[in-house]
Target: Anthraniloyl-CoA monooxygenase
Amino acid sequence: MKVACLGGGPAGLYFAISMKLRDPSHEIVVVERNRPYDTFGWGVVLSDETLGHLEKNDRRSAEMIRDAFAYWDDIAVHHRGQVVRSGGHGFCGIGRRKLLNVLQDRCVELGIELRFETEINGAEEFAGYDLVVACDGINSRIRSQYADVFKPDIEQRANKYIWLGTHQKFDDAFTFIFEETEHGWVWVHAYQFDPETATFIVECSEATWRGLGFDQMDGPQTIAACEKLFAKYLGGHSLMSNARHLRGSAWLNFQRVLCEKWSHGNVVLMGDAAATAHFSIGSGSKLAVESAIALADYLHSEPTLQAAFDRYEADRRVEVLKLQSAARNSTEWFEDVERYLHLDPVQFTYSLLTRSQRVSHENLRLRDAAWLEGAEKWFEQQATGTVPATARPPMFTPLTLRGVTLPNRIVVSPMAQYSATDGLPGDWHFVHYTSRALGGAGLVTTEMTCISADARITPGCTGLYSDAQEAGWARIVDFIHAETPAKIAIQLGHAGPKGSTQLGWETMDAPLAEGNWGLIAPSAVAWSDGNQTPRAMTRNDMDRVRDDFVAAARRAARAGFDVLELHYAHGYLMSAFITPLTNRREDEYGGSLENRMRFPLEVYHAVRAVWPDDRPVSVRISASDWVGDDGIRPEDAVQIAAMLKEAGVDIVDVSAGQTSTKARPVYGRMFQTPFADRVRNEARVATMAVGNIFEPDHLNSILMAGRADLCCLARPHLADPYWGLHAAVKLGYEAMPWPKQYRSGRDQAYRLAARGPEQMTGKV
Model:
């Protein structure tokens, strides 16, 4: 083949090498606009995994690269006068110029033509070539030329950053430095890449950048200002820029690039031209060289050029999306870093280390068990006031809210059972709730329990508006208190516009075939076109609803519940007041968020007045309506939580959605945890995280990073009532209390777990 690689970065050079190794008869040229020894970055980070791919593909260049590497194992975080150091991370760095020169030399050895100082104006200049690889960088001209085919999606991120270098040594750790200024925080990503030089990336928000006057500075002024900001870390060394090719300021905003299609005719995109990953996870060069290997492989294994392109795109797109997902998490963490800077340096460091969600709690244990054990001890000390002799996983650490201490952080989330008759909890409810308390949860929460008959979602919903119902709940509560260490919460709510519907396993949210009751709501807005339109509430209606909540709360206290949760989420009555999607009122209960919160806060205050002082109150909210600016947004949720905190709410149960049929949620692992994280760390209130949390590692990572204080699991507890006990076995946490009747089973479970996972599954 006659091959043109347009762009002489790592992607183009390494692809040329990979092609030539597979067939020396290929005629390959690499075209680059710059000179051989020009480079505009400083260091490049590669992982051990990527090094393995390089060595397998071309041992010669891999050895030259390896010989030039600077290695480090630790991450050091400078924050509020402390340095927290964690090991086992296994990084290696090489100067970008050195990497390019190694690859250039290898190309020359293999007979590949290198054509420098040559501008590339369009793919048509290479019409005589069989294959044109467009690896001409993030501002690719070839991608722009065929933008209607490639359909690039380019997103400019918020933070400002500048890529500098220094002769100060950071050879013992990848170093993060956070410094507070009068205009906000500025931070550094620093790492050694040769014996004499380190990369020094300075980053901050645009508001801080403007506040410090960087927008008015030229290059030398910018460098002088950065040297002053970080003087105590530079040891007298200066900072250096090699970005003379940039017009004006050398400050940049990262651009996330992803193309809908990667090939057109005989032209194919590679490297930053096809997709980018934020520098904070150090994967740009990884994407480039691994894509180069993959394309070279498929060009020699597939029957046609198009078939090779199709396999290349299908294979690499998956890896790109994985990395971009991790990079997005990392990018957003740094964009919101001022949300976390109040955290203790230990917890802040943990949050930083796990920001991309590629590194989990147990993965950190593999990397540096001693550091993680110290962090776990710190976490327990914050909760209990004493330093433990032996660390325990965060999910098994107690939490005290007012006078109630939960034995661990596992919460059985409210899950409607639709199995009550006239609101009365029966034998099904007794078995359902008590089995999950026996199964190791720290807090068991009831399904939404309705404050009146016409407040029910369905005829099968439980209530707390009669003596019989109160007695039924007391029976469940008494058993849990007598036989388990678990606590139990009751969730009280009113269905509002989502009431009078069929059971959950019938047609969800559809009206009853017969026997519908009238509905009330803040405004006459139906849940859907198929649901009845509720009557807009009068002040008398509001008084009745408030008093029904109060009466139910009194009954809950007499029944012995430890925690009371008010359901202000998911489109039910209180939620319908909060979201502008369903609150169209023009009086003092509609309009601004403060007005829309007026009645929910009134109900809370009335309930709090009759609920025992030593027992906490939780409120569940929908932190996003998933409809954009027309509904509740995460920033609104922070304001809602702040109002609840000021009113005296002890913990906010942060859910999302289910407020509109127009919602377009984005699902995924722990997909609602970012809402709990934001509410907790901006409103500074305790939170519960919900939403597709199903692994012990999820809970430990969420809790240890300070993203929430409790974790709610719904479906996992439906599948396994003993999820908490089984999680303790999986983690080897033997201090977990089991019912005395089950102790022989406990002992066998731990013995089998000690022998290996095959014993636990029966695969022996």
Summary: Confidence is low (pLDDT under 50) at residues 760-764. The chain has two domains: 2-336, 393-747. The longest helix spans residues 305-335.
